[in-house]
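Record 1 of the preview.
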Amino acid sequence: MEYTLEVSGESFSIQLDRQKQMARMNGKKISYRKVGDFLFIDHHPIVYQIIRDKSGSVEGVFLHGKWIPVKIQGSDASRQAAVHHGEVRAPLNGMVARIFVQEMDFIKEGSVVLILEAMKMENEISAPVSGKVTQIDVKEKEVVKAGNLLFKIEMME
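->
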């Protein structure tokens, strides 16, 4: 997939190879991996939240708490498919302490879906989009590794 990304007036050409989790940005090769609410670029964790309008188009990103308006040109169908079949994965190793939803429940973006306990801390795992929970891959008290699938959400039309 190929995109043109405009951030704060600066354009970037991005080519993604999702199977190899590799990308080229303005010709420079980088590795990436998305795990839950974290994006690892060349093994550096980045905390972000994508903000979409009602049609699902990206308006901007909160990057480490700072708002950055973003415009993306590229395959709308590919972007929508990623949101419609949203997989939420464990951001770190831990134990599923509590699950607040069931399959086929409708939830709102930002709703807490489950609590992942790691290093004696409770981490809220929230819905990245509003929609229907189509699959829950974990049970309470189950130990998961970073990257394990926790649940899937189908975005509401």
